[in-house]
Amino acid sequence: MRKVLVATIKPFAPAAVEQIKKIVEQAGYRFALLEKYTDQSELISAVADADALIIRSDKADRQVIEAGKNLKIIVRAGAGYDNIDLEAATEKGIVAMNTPGQNSNAVAELALGMMVYMARNLFNGKPGTELKGKTLGIHAYGNVGRHVARIARGFDMKVSAFDPFIPAEAIEKDGVEVLSSVEELYGKNQYISLHIPANEQTKNSINYELLSRMPNGATLVNTARKEVIDEDGLLKIFAEREDFRYVSDIAPDCADTIQEKYAGRFYFTPKKMGAQTAEANINAGIAAANQIVNFFEKGDTTFQVNK
Ligand code: 3PG
């Protein structure tokens, strides 16, 4: 009997786990759950006899992949798959997938929520500002970026975007201005919302040069990955510009310095919170379970990311 292991340091909502289990068992497979594990060795031993693995931001590194002797498929229930060693998976003939779009509304709502929180001075009782009429630049117009645009337009923000991989018409039809370079995006917008993946091209790419282009009253919103930020550049802009603010779903490595020196100009979630809603957990969890069943039963490899 095939075994499907759900391994999550940060657990899914119980309703999501229940539904994943139901799908797995209805397909005639065995369901196994490893939640809140504290050491990678627990994942390494649990994966030993699993045929399929569902994870969130959990690390499916080479060691995990090699330990999964029966492993045929890994599904990252979420968007970013920078936590899977794709090369190792491909070498072992393991299919890696994500579940694009399933948690994106949750992430987008958090991005706007953090913008309001920062615009209102962290709810400290002092007068803040409104989002209405402010400029917002969306850096990468994928599933999350699109939801951010929709919600921001409801706030009456002036929304523009830069994404070289999406046709201009697909952006324009949402009432969003298309910009032709990343420099223009940062140069024109008081708020920037980041939605780029973390990969070799994007790591450390949000640097001093770009950030220093932002107009007065700049707020950078990061619900993507901390790795895309060049932290030396981030500290430099904090030091140079009193107007610069940074809100991020997970703290940067230099959080201690920022906390010590720039009180009131930042907010970091204690844990990655973007996809942490019951709805997102259910959507992504069900999608992951169905993708596994469809892969085993029909050979369906839609959403494979290591082709
Ligand atoms: C994603 O890439 O889907 C988000 O960052 C959510 O990650 P999480 O499932 O670990 O909360």
TrEMBL record:
Matches recorded under InterPro entries: D-isomer_2_OHA_DH_cat_dom, D-isomer_DH_NAD-bd, NAD(P)-bd_dom_sf
Residue ranges of every copy of the D-isomer specific 2-hydroxyacid dehydrogenase catalytic domain listed in the record: 13-306
Top-level division of the source organism's lineage: Bacteria
Membrane-spanning intervals of the chain: none
Keywords: Oxidoreductase
SUPFAM superfamilies xref list: Formate/glycerate dehydrogenase catalytic domain-like, NAD(P)-binding Rossmann-fold domains
Name of this chain's protein: 3-phosphoglycerate dehydrogenase
Domain D-isomer specific 2-hydroxyacid dehydrogenase NAD-binding residue range list: 125-250
Family: Belongs to the D-isomer specific 2-hydroxyacid dehydrogenase family.
GO MF term set: NAD binding; oxidoreductase activity, acting on the CH-OH group of donors, NAD or NADP as acceptor
